[in-house]
What does this fold into?
Amino acid sequence: MPKTKYKRVLLKLSGEALAGENKTGINSQVLGQMADDIVQAIDLGVEMGIVIGGGNIFRGVAASAQGMDRASSDYMGMLATCINALALQDALEKKGLATRVQSAIEMAEIAEPYIRRKAMRHLEKRRIVIFAAGTGNPYFTTDTAAALRAMEINADVILKATKVDGVFDKDPALHPEAEKFDQLTYIEVLKRGLKVMDSTAISLCMDNKLPIVIFNLTEAGNVARVISGEQIGTIVSHD
Ligand code: GTP
It folds into this structure.
């Protein structure tokens, strides 16, 4: 089995990415590609937890900006992550991977409740654990849920999947001259207001010295590349 840089990882997937060109909903082709990438990474022998967002179905922050009660809209966003978690579970199981979905909001007919010790056992048995419903609390993003779960399962790193190659000094979609950072510290991210993750998630990672690798998921094979230790994307850490 090839050697990997990390033994246990927390992969953070965005809900929006699942929509592909459709912008909303779930694009089965994109979902299939994500699953292929995950299969490739798992074949390297890594243990993986996954947190997936829900923005392709419902964006709590956007709805609250339009006047909806923030807590209600955040709960709707959490439910959206459950739909994506089940879709991802289905796609991964079709490729032969063992998975378990654990939800931070109890819905026993649909998913296991989040129980940390059970999640750890699943991971030890090489099952992918998909953590649904964020942290179960409004006002917390799925990035914060990813940081929290990563810490709880003793992950070595958070792999934050995006549509671009890493973290840039400006939005690369608007500024072609934008420069990519290979390495950043948590403090630099916070001071420069770089849009890596929200400040709660970054602070949590900083306080617990959990590195974050931001990489491009639209390029096939990148999850495995990061796990193998290839220097792609941007790494955010203490030094
Ligand atoms: P082991 O303890 O290692 O055998 O793990 P396991 O997950 O295979 O055992 P378990 O009997 O807990 O689960 C069997 C199946 O039922 C798995 O697909 C679980 O995801 C599912 N499952 C377990 N608990 C719940 C629950 O509370 N709700 C739902 N919907 N499914 C559950």
Remarks:
- The longest helix spans residues 70-94.
- The pocket of guanosine-5'-triphosphate is lined by residues 100, 108-113, 121, 125 (CB under 6 Å).
- The chain has a mean pLDDT of 95.
